[in-house]
Design goal:
heterodimer, A: about 260 residues, alpha/beta, Rossmann fold, two-stranded antiparallel ribbon, 6 helices, 11 strands, B: about 375 residues, alpha+beta, Butyryl-Coa Dehydrogenase, subunit A, domain 1, Butyryl-CoA Dehydrogenase, subunit A, domain 2, Butyryl-CoA Dehydrogenase, subunit A, domain 3, 4-stranded antiparallel β-sheet, 10 strands, binds flavin-adenine dinucleotide
């Protein structure tokens, strides 16, 4: 009967980011959403819960305005949520996010398994999961595409470059999951309406045991620019040679290819 | 006053969008072409609790407010107007009267499976000789022992071919005029009820429409809905609710036309620049967006009044006539923006233009809406 904690991040929905002629990103109309792989993390937790019983709680660190995210997370099934928030917790460095989560998980929760998404939709630093496991001093398995429980043992499949690796470990443990692990269900109408009635444990900065003043400051965000030369080349030998020369001189392909 | 959706409403909208994108978008063209009822999508909607949205949880519904309900109908219709209407007809026209006028046994027996989406509902008032003039109906219900015997033909019954439960109107006493009309709940298993001709339609082709033939159809007395003679009131009250859904459906259709027009006009290059750079195109798009916003406020306001338990007959009629007429106007403009490509099957705007027209006809024509509005103002 595993007690599971699913971590999620409430991020800017890239679909709403506008770009115009200015170099900066226009976030004015940007809505927020649950980070994509964190949906998989919650779904994975719910599927384990449906199969093996136990409990599922959601946890997040964010801005106090991110209450919609809490409802969203709860509509996906968890029975309660830990909402750690402060106006300064908007652009946290992944190491700090992990430290804050570790602080609350240690002080306020009991768990057998923690599930995170492999990386967040905005930064994709893949840091929070492994760092959190390290701080809690529990084993961590990343790139997980399948989970099964056998008593106290957890069997996880990892999708790595050269194939699938099957690992077994004992609980408590932390997993970071890939999107391949499941296809998250779309919350039904009753799930959304029920979410508002589930308990939310709010934790503000003063209640944390460390100093978590953000060490990262975002000054501006610019859009990635792809410069195009607009140079047209034919399939004539001279043009092909020119193309190779140009690519080599820019260091895009290695010398000696000719 | 508050124009902002709550967080809950935003989540509901995102979820229905996702569901529709996953299950309805991929088949919308096919079900229009083949006039196929999308049973698999209706099953998904039922599983998510979208088939009994405004009814209390104890009757199998979700207990949703009407503003959000209408918003969901808009979102479904934005993908497929026929499916939006199937849900709206099932929910407001068929389930609505049972919730509003049914007794406890009727609610348990009929509303619960309807609201859970296990059963589909239909509403049959229109007859070949009685459209706008509901009172001209000739279907009769004669009391014989413990049951009524119904005889007559209903036409244009939406969901008729797929429904499990029908709300049917018949005269228990023709001599009383409108006060002699009564409403009955009839199961599809009743041997006296037969699905007649299916209609082959211009638009909302995935919505199933047929005749319903009542031949010595015995309906037990306990399935009389409300009281004898209450039929006209029940029908009119159902239309009041239903019209909010039709207005939302029209807004969904037009929003889709706007979405398509924006993306197409930015892509289509003529005279060396996207056609969206021409003021002529820009004005069509600006007018479309403005009318959509106005129509959305109108239906939301009618729904809000209903949620507040205030009269909303006039406002629902206003929302419906405005939304329907702007929808036919602008879906035609959307085809115009697409030029020849907009006239070709498979282009979404071609379907939208055909789908829009029905919103001016059913649940009371535009003329009938104006009669309702004027009747309210000139009392
Ligand atoms: C696809 C579809 C689905 C439908 N679904 C259902 C359903 O589920 N259940 C159901 O019961 N019915 C349904 N209907 C019937 C629909 O509600 C009627 O078609 C509608 O009420 C109009 O009736 P009619 O077609 O007989 O037109 P008519 O009433 O004959 O009207 C013809 C024209 O005359 C105008 N007119 C009529 N009377 C007046 C007047 N007094 N003053 C000014 N103008 C007037 C009308 O506005 C219209 O323009 C459906 C119809 C269609 C096409």
């Amino acid at each position: 009967m595993p007690r599971i904690i699913a971590c999620y991040k409430w991020v800017v929905d890239e679909a709403y980011i506008r770009t115009d002629s200015s170099p900066e990103l226009d976030l004015e109309y940007a809505d927020k959403k649950m980070s994509d792989y964190d949906r998989n993390a919650i779904e994975a937790a719910m599927q384990l819960h449906e199969k093996y019983g136990g409990s599922v709680a959601a946890i997040t660190v964010g801005h106090p305005d991110d209450t919609k995210g809490v409802k969203d997370a709860l509509s996906r099934g968890p029975e309660k949520a830990y909402f750690i928030n402060d106006p300064s917790f908007e652009n946290l460095e992944p190491a700090q996010t992990a430290a804050i989560l570790a602080d609350v998980v240690t002080a306020k929760t009991e768990y057998d398994l923690i599930i995170c998404g492999e990386g967040s939709s905005d930064l994709y630093a893949q840091q929070v999961g492994p760092r959190l496991a390290e701080l809690l001093d529990i084993p961590c398995v990343t790139m997980v595409s399948k989970i099964e429980l056998a008593g106290e043992q957890l069997i996880a499949e990892r999708k790595v470059d050269d194939g699938i690796e099957t690992v077994s470990l004992s609980l408590p443990a932390l997993l970071t999951v890939l999107p391949d692990i499941n296809s998250p269900r779309i919350p039904g109408l009753r799930d959304t309406l029920a979410a508002s009635k589930k308990p939310v444990i709010e934790i503000v900065k003063d209640e944390l045991s460390g100093d978590f003043t953000p060490c990262l400051q975002v000054l501006a965000s610019f859009k990635a620019n792809m410069e195009r030369n607009g140079q047209k080349l034919s399939d004539e030998a001279a043009d092909i040679a020119l193309l190779l020369d140009t690519l080599q001189s820019k260091g895009i392909i290695a010398r000696g290819v000719k | 006053m508050d124009f902002k959706l709550s967080e809950e409403q935003e989540l509901i909208r995102e979820n229905i969008r996702e569901l529709v994108k996953k299950y309805l978008d991929p088949i919308a063209v096919e079900i229009d072409e083949s006039s196929r009822y999308p049973a698999e999508v209706i099953e998904q909607l039922a599983a998510g609790g979208w088939m009994g949205m405004p009814y209390p949880v104890e009757y199998g519904g979700a207990g949703l407010d009407y503003v959000s309900y209408a918003m969901v109908i808009e979102e479904i219709s934005r993908s497929c107007a026929a499916t939006g209407f199937t849900v709206s007809c099932h929910t407001s026209l068929a389930s609505g009267p049972i919730f509003n006028f049914g007794n406890e046994e009727q609610k348990q027996k009929y509303l619960v499976p309807l609201a859970k989406g296990q059963h589909i509902g239909a509403f049959a008032v229109t007859e070949p000789g009685a459209g706008t003039d509901v009172g001209a109906a000739t279907t009769t219900a004669t009391l014989d022992g413990d049951s009524y015997v119904l005889n007559g033909i209903k036409t244009f019954t939406s969901n008729g071919p797929v429904a499990d439960t029908f709300v049917v109107f018949a005269f228990t006493d023709k001599s009383l005029g409108g006060k002699g009309l009564s409403a009955f709940i009839i199961s599809k298993d009743n041997p006296g009820l037969k699905v007649g001709q299916h209609f082959y339609k211009m638009g909302i082709r995935a919505s199933q429409t047929s005749e319903i033939i009542l031949k010595d159809c015995r309906v037990p007395r306990e399935d009389l809905l409300g009281k004898e003679g209450q039929g006209l009131q029940i029908a009119m009250s159902s239309f009041d609710h239903g019209r909010i859904g039709i207005a939302a459906q029209a807004v969904g259709i037009t929003q889709a036309a706007l979405d398509e027009s924006i993306s197409y006009s930015k892509q289509r290059v003529q005279f060396g620049k996207p056609i969206s750079k021409n003021q002529a195109i820009q004005w069509m798009i600006a007018d479309m967006a403005t009318d959509i916003a106005a129509a959305r406020f109108l239906y939301s306001y009618a729904a809000f009044l209903k949620d507040q338990k205030q009269p909303f007959t006039k406002e629902a009629a206003m929302a419906k006539v405005f939304a329907a007429e702007m929808s036919t106007r602008h879906t035609s403009k959307a085809v115009q923006i697409h030029g020849g490509y907009g006239y070709i099957k498979g282009q979404k705007v071609e379907r939208l233009m055909r789908d829009a027209k029905i919103t001016e006809i059913y649940e009371g024509t535009s003329e009938a809406q104006r009669m309702v509005i004027a009747g309210n103002l000139l009392r």
